[in-house]
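User: Teach me something about this protein's shape.
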Amino acid sequence: MIVVDVNVVAYTLIEGDWTVDAKRLRTLDPHWRLPRLWRYEFVNLLATYRRAGGMSEPRARDLLRAALAYYGPAELEPDQDAVLQAASQHRITGYDAEYVALALRLGVKLVTEDEPLRRAVPGAAISIKGAIARALPPPS
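Assistant: First, the predicted structure itself:
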């Protein structure tokens, strides 16, 4: 089990530099958890793509429906006191702290390609490639 941020979710649905690795990670470790916040961030991401002309409105709606169907059941809410504490302790946004607090509560890693966030919480956050390496069985 891992906690993933909204960008990792997006990489599984929108072709980009990390799509292959994100899909591989989902295959290796399909037990992803997210705070409900991911929904709002994902809608914002789709709206940003739309404004930039990166996708049609029907495509954005299809992606939103697919994301909600697949990732909605994986939602867990972090304790808001823990979110505030994580934000203060690590000097990160409240949004990022939602993911960090959830990962800490579950005792799992947060997977993110947000390098400043990984630097802020090095014991809790890792990259997609790092998560893939952890999920692979040891060589025999």
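Now, about its shape. The mean pLDDT is 95. The CA atoms of residues 106 and 139 lie 27 Å apart. If you'd like, I can walk through any region in more detail.
User: That's plenty for now, thanks!
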